[in-house]
Amino acid sequence: MSVKAKISRVKRNNQKKNKLIKRGVIKKSQKKGKTPANVPQIPKNVSKEEYSAEESDHGEDMLEMIEEEDLEFLKQAITNKSYNILNRVKYSGPPVNKPKKRKLITDDERLENDYENEIDDMSGKRVKALLPIKTQKGLVYKEIVENILEKEQTEKNENPAETEDDKDSIEEEFSLQETDIDISKPISAAQLLATRSETLRQKKIHIGTLSSGLLENPEEKITNLKTLLNLMDDEIPEVFYTIRKLTIVSLLEVFKDILPDYEIKNLNPEGVKLKKDTLKLQKYEENLLAYYKKFLQKLEKFSFMLVKKKGDTRVLTEEDKKLSELSIQTLCSLLVSHPNFNYSQNIAQVIVPFLNHSRRDLRQGVKQSVITIFKEDKKQEITLKILRLVNNYLKTHTQNVNTEILEILLALNLREVNLDAEKEQNIKNKKMQAKKSRIMQLSKKEKKRKKKLEELEKEMMETRAEENRQIKQTNLTEITKIMFNIYFRILKCSENRKILSVCLEGLTKFAHCINLEYYVDMVNILNKLLHEEWLGYKEQLHCIQTIFILLSGQGEAVNIDPTRFYVNLYRDLLTTHAGRNHDNIFIVLKTLIDSLIKRRKKITNKRIINFVKRLTTLSLQLLHNGSLGCLGMVKVLMQLNRSTDILLDLDNSGGEGQYQPEIHDPEYANASNTALFETSLLSTHYHPVVRKFSRNIASGVPSTGDGSLPLEYGKLTIEQLYENYDISQMAFNPAIPVVKTVITRSRPVNKIFLSSTFSEECRIILKVKKERELFWISS
Question: For residue 675, which of 728, 612, 622 has the smallest C-alpha distance?
Fold first, then answer.
């Protein structure tokens, strides 16, 4: 098992040198202050300048010894830089005597100089001259053209560990042999764990130091991000999963702290001189944006490990899955904390497909993040981007879709949306302009003055942030169109009950935003859907509720008879009970509020009476919070329509026919010929509030006096009665009092027998039984 560690080039050279000294290949250098014996000594009475002048002739006599043909060859070679030894030689005439200066060249400078010497021009090619060939006709010169870029690429492929990003340090194998552990002997698990813990501790200190320094001074320590990003590519086998997780969490907190709330735009005006501080800030923002982009790319790579395509036979380990989940959570956190920063749309594009992932916990996490974004988005810009991505995704995935991808739409706040507002405003403006043109005819001077006033008014609107409000309204309108486009496509194509249920629930919530011209088509689609056999009861309730919402408000102008929907609702009302589908009662109550209370002026007395009788029957088979909701509905209907008092009369001789509860149409069930006998059963209910409501209804729902409700119960709405007394949290409201223990005193009982013989037999039997019990106890 080996571990990679980074050491500097100087340290590596020293290690190699020490090994060679131990082998005896080279000799150890002399200590400082001692002079080797073979080095000539400078006389004390001679200066260094004179000594160097006497010893060196500067190559003046060398030129006389070189032939003219060789001299021409050397000049040409110097010009073309054909040989590395001649790269730094510049031929410019006779030599000039200059004093020599010794300059120390560091490893980095030598590396840069070698790199500059290898590159000749920007084309990436170099002409290399070969040695000339002497013939009878003279010298024959030959050259070779080398491609430097291909050569560098070959060298990189041969040595992938050495890159340009890391010139001052390289990665080497850090094996157990270099540690204190003796690999010639068996290694225990405790030693391996200790080595791993030590390596992990050092990495934690490194990550913490880099992150804290970056948070203290981001502009000066921005390069720490590069080092942290490189740590995410660390391939140490024992700890690389842990290091990646720690680095991701650290970078998340760093970016959440240093990222601005605005979008960084690359503005590089040409010919404009910027101040030093402005240039510094611009450079910092460019670096921050570049490192942030690299971080997002790495997170995207880790996230999509959970997405398998066709033909993918990878087997993910549990650590890979945890790393992918952490990456997705990090992307969601970045989008929630900085939704208006750069690359927010790219992050949304990555996380939206995970709303339809097979892992439920992953879907729920992304769903909660998107809902938080919808609630906190003030400009509605990122909301519009996410909805467009959801719409595009659902176009290609219509059947196998999870409910989370549609449940996020229920979190939208569309109360201020009116799709007809723009059309109404245009009509109003046209009428106003036509009226003005009829009344007055403006001169040219007045027209110019009017134009200036309009421009001034526009500027004033901008100062009052009126434009931002208009942009928000435009975004909300576009969001509404996309949302209904999604819902209508599902209504026409999908047969998935779960998806359809969420779709109908959304239509129920946002039905007031639908354009008036689509009301008739919408009602016809829902009516057709009600006759489908595969549709469940909950989905039927949503359909009926949506229809009654459409027919209220602006929909009152639409000429549609809702009788068939009342029949459907009345027929299946008793389907809900205290078993598995008790939660449907809340949808039933909301549907009855839209159909009976809000439309009470458009329905007959017979229909209301039959619904009141059916609701009291329904309250017998529900939990106490459902019963309270039904009794609250009955109470409101009896207060709004006094014709229901006939149900409190026990004399049925004056009615028409007999009560027939099996008839589906509430117009012909003849509930007026019966009474609310259910209230006598509900008066003995286990819940005290249900008992009070039943007595109030049996008394004719009086507001004061005998049989009236206490003020704390009388002010509660129907929804509040259902929600406040819900026992899903296992809490009984009101609290059940503790039962007091009562000690009963035994009293003598006189037994009288008609036959004395039978009395004697009983006495003998009891005596024998008692004797047997005493015998078994004693034994």
Answer: 612
Picking from 617, 619, 573, the residue whose alpha carbon sits closest to that of residue 592 is 573
Per-10-residue mean pLDDT of the chain, 779 residues long, equals: 61 82 67 45 47 46 64 66 48 48 54 55 60 78 67 52 40 41 66 81 89 89 90 79 91 92 76 79 89 93 85 80 92 92 92 90 92 88 92 84 89 69 62 63 74 75 59 85 89 82 86 79 85 84 88 75 90 89 91 90 90 94 93 94 89 75 90 91 92 93 89 90 85 74 65 79 87 77
Residue 282's nearest CA partner among 357, 362, 193, 222 is 222
Read off the tokens for 248: 């991701």
CA triple 663-665-666, angle to 5 deg: 100
Residue 654 DSSP code: T
Asked if 203 and 246 touch (Cβ cutoff 8 Å), the reply is yes
Distance CA 222, CA 289 (A): 11
Which residue in this structure is represented by tokens 């989370």? 404
CB-based contacts of 179, cutoff 8 Å, min separation 6: 195
Q: How many CB atoms lie under 10 A from the CB of residue 330?
A: 22
Measuring CA to CA, which residue among 361, 363, 382, 365 is closest to residue 373?
382
Give the pLDDT score at 460. Answer: 66
Q: What is the pLDDT of residue 436?
A: 63
Provide the pLDDT for residue 61: 55
The Cα 156–Cα 365 span in angstroms is 43
Q: Give residue 307's pLDDT.
A: 84
If residue 437 lies in a helix (H) or strand (E), which one and from where to where?
helix 421-439
Give phi and psi for 6, each to the nearest 5.
Answer: -100, 125
Nearest Cα neighbor of 514 from 410, 408, 418, 406 is 418
**Cβ proximity of 408 and 364 under 8 Å:** no
Distance CA 345, CA 356 (A): 18
10, 107 Cβ separation under 8 angstroms: yes
Under DSSP, the state recorded for 747 is -
Looking at the DSSP assignment, which residues form a beta bridge with residue 139?
A: 134
Which one-letter amino acid corresponds to residue 660?
Q
d(CA 537, CA 576): 9
Sign (positive/negative) of CA torsion 35, 38, 43, 48? negative
Q: What's the CA gap between 266 and 342, in Å, rounded? A: 11
Bridge pairing between strands 125-129 and 2-8? unpaired
Strand partners, 133: 140
- Exposure class string for 706-738: b at 16+ Cβ within 10 A, else e: eebbeeebeebebeebbeebbeeeeeeeeeeee
Location of structure tokens 């084309």: 123
What pTM was computed for the model? Answer: 0.63
Closest CA to 352 of 332, 337, 322, 381: 332
pLDDT at 163: 42
- Give me the DSSP letters along 299-364: HHHHHGGG---TT------HHHHHHHHHHHHHHHHHHHH-TTSTTHHHHHHHHGGGGG-S-HHHHH
Cα separation, 572 vs 535, whole angstroms: 13
In the chain, where are the structural domains located? 63-94+105-154, 192-411, 561-739
